[in-house]
Amino acid sequence: MKSILLINCSPRGEAAESHWLSRQIVEHLLRLEPTAIVTERRLGDGTIPHIDAQYATALGQTQKAEVEFAPQGSMAYSEELVQELERADFVVIGTPMHNFTVPSVLKAWIDHIARVRRTFDMAPDGKIALLADRPVFVAVSSGARYSGDRARQPDFLTPYLTFVLGMIGLRRVTFFSVEGTSSSSERLSKVREEAVFAIKDHFFACALFERPLELEL
User: Fold this and answer.
1) Can you tell me the distance from the alpha carbon of 200 to that of 194, in angstroms, rounded to the nearest whole number?
2) Residue 90 gets which letter from DSSP?
3) What sign results for the dihedral spanned by CA atoms 161, 164, 165, 166?
4) Most-buried pick from 9, 30, 37, 86 (CB within 10 A)?
5) pLDDT confidence of 216, banded at 50, 70, 90?
6) Closest Cα to residue 9, out of 100, 114, 97?
7) Per-residue pLDDT tens for 81-102?
8) For position 217, what pLDDT does the model report?
9) What does each C-alpha distance from 21 to 30, 42, 213 come to in angstroms?
10) 124, 110, 113, 61: which is closest to 87 by C-alpha?
11) Spatial CA neighbour of 136 closest among 161, 110, 105, 108
């Protein structure tokens, strides 16, 4: 049985455009995998903590020295989040764009799951990913446009997520967006329609070409 990890990052909860868009993605995944179990983790309510001193100190140790740190505080929470991620066959992240990049709650989640010697390792030539790849879908909402010819602001969100998720092994990242949420209601309706069409088009193609969404383990 497949599993879907849904991560929602907006402080607006279910009223957020990114939450709405992420649910559209989940619905299409469930059409492909009707028996899949959805696990939702809401970060937007501010309950996710930042890493603590013990976590930071442990990561600065050698692998042998790290075992001396008891799995409590941030280290224990990090392990919970990493195992949750490992169990997921599909990951869906719904996030607003804050100040041109990811909101602080999503960065806090990344700080917990991007952990040296656990989800990536160090080598002379760079970092080595330790997680198995799986499809990741990111639903982004932004007040202004950040892509295409009509972009009105820079985008540090999509390159950052692409890089940091790839660093731990999640390289199959697909972005969908609702841009210009501060526009008129008529314009927002059009943007939402475009987003739904993009999602449908993506999953229709997946269904045609032998379901490449399947995990390649």
Assistant:
1) 10
2) E
3) positive
4) 9
5) very low
6) 97
7) 999 999 999 999 999 999 999 9
8) 33
9) 15, 15, 19
10) 113
11) 161
